[in-house]
Amino acid sequence: MRLLLISSSLVHGHGYLDHAEAELRDFLGATKRLLFVPFAQADHEAYTARVHERLTAMGLEVDGLHTAADPLAAIAGAGAVFVGGGNTFCLLSELQRRGLLPALRARIGAGAAYIGSSAGTNLAGLSIGTTNDMPIVWPADLQALALLPFNLNPHYLDQDPRSTHMGETREVRIGEFHERNQQPVLGLREPAMLRREGQTLSLRGTGGARLFRRGEAPAELAPAAALDALLRP
After folding, report:
1. What's the whole-model pTM score?
2. Residues with catalytic function
3. If the chain, 233 residues long, is cut into consecutive pieces of 10 residues, what is the mean pLDDT of each piece?
4. Helix/strand/coil (H, E, C) string of the chain?
């Protein structure tokens, strides 16, 4: 299984996907065509056009899943799938409504490269229960693609010691998740990325990450950390 999971497509001081371009090129290699899944945003046409403009500048071809005459056939024939960011609840709900989640899971399991950004990264975990997004729609359930045996929290933010904000931090929210759920949660800071190649899992980018396990103190993970052990829960 091959995965490239990006915490965010936009990082301060960079244009859209600029910070991830070198990693994307290396990950895709000779693959030059992607199937783009735009369902995390409401305007599928505009979103696909934005991705098309950016990726064609890298010499890639982009097909929008929403325009496929036969979406199941489009997924079955894809060499690479890119699931973009937006609202994770909308993304999962639309994939469920269209009956595409099992097909995506099967295609990635059969060898197609999977790229996720933000909501698309959330979708790669066991469930979307650790997204930062508001449930503006409600899926049939929260079960995701389960391409990894844990959950993800893209855009992870550390508590600012100078802040006077008294609301819950990301760490507190993930602790609440672990009051009722067992699976680990990987908090991906910006501009961190996670890459899986078979049974090898590594942390890419410069942001680092934090690993949360139920009943344990969070573990700090430095950029370039080897995380293969996380694939063996």
Report:
1. 0.97
2. 118, 133, 155
3. 97 93 98 98 98 98 98 98 98 98 98 98 98 98 98 93 83 97 98 98 96 98 97 84
4. CEEEEECCCCCCCCCCCHHHHHHHHHHHCCCCEEEEECCCCCCHHHHHHHHHHHHHCCCCEEEEHHHCCCHHHHHHCCCEEEECCCCHHHHHHHHHHCCCHHHHHHHHHCCCEEEEECHHHHCCCCECCCCCCCCCCCCCCCECCCCCCCEEEECCCCCCCCCCCCCCCHHHHHHHHCCCCCCCEEEECCCCEEEEECCEEEEECCCCEEEECCCCCCEEECCCCECHHHHCC
